[in-house]
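G., the chain you wanted modeled:
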Amino acid sequence: MGVKKKKILTPEPNSKFILISCPDCGNEQVSFDRASTIVKCHICGRVLVEPSSGKAKVRGRLIKVLE
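Predicted structure as tokens:
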């Protein structure tokens, strides 16, 4: 008899929120790693996240992944 695998009753999503820093002004803001729209910096207006077919392309500096 083998060991039974535990069923996952509530699956967790693959997507996460991320904390991004703007390379121009240093502003930090939270975004979604699978963003479907362009995310701009609130202070200077630089594009920080661009959508792609799946995960978004991060143009700013990724500080950390929020849980």
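The chain has a mean pLDDT of 89.

Shout if anything looks off.
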